[in-house]
Specification:
HIT family, subunit A, 31% helix, alpha+beta, 131 residues
Length: 131
């Protein structure tokens, strides 16, 4: 059964997509820790990040770097935190989280709910800042 991320990749369910190429996609987390929390996902559905071949893993991180720089330009923050947990969805994904404090990347904290208009505005800002 396809993961929820594969369904996003296949446009079966909507997402706030901020970047995409032939191999990777990045979109806003719909249950973010903070505004601008973005997920970077390979289009090939592989459950565990360290099961990716070395080229895909390296290219995933290069793609994530490009997205992280755009997120940092778009969201007031000190830096972008990176987390790979991989337990909640069986499809490799990298969390990019705008940080001002250590708590901003604490996954035990309650998630925030942002209005659709805010999510779209954030996605548009990130897309505009991609280089």
């Amino acid at each position: 059964m396809p993961s929820i991320f594969t369904k996003i990749i296949n446009r079966e369910i909507p997402a706030y997509i901020v970047a995409e190429d032939e191999h990777f996609i990045a979109f806003l987390d719909v249950m973010p820790l903070v505004e601008g929390h973005t997920l970077v996902v390979p289009k090939t559905e592989v459950d565990y990040i360290f099961d990716l071949d070395t080229t895909t893993l390296a290219n995933l991180m290069v793609f994530a770097q490009r997205v992280a720089k755009a997120v940092k330009k778009s969201i007031p923050c000190k830096r972008i935190g990176v987390a790979v947990i991989g337990l909640e969805v069986p499809h490799t994904h990298v969390h990019l989280v705008p940080l001002n404090t250590m708590n901003d990347i604490n996954f035990t904290m309650p998630k925030i709910k942002l209005p659709a208009e805010t999510m779209q505005a954030v996605a548009d800002r990130i897309k505009a800042n991609l280089v």
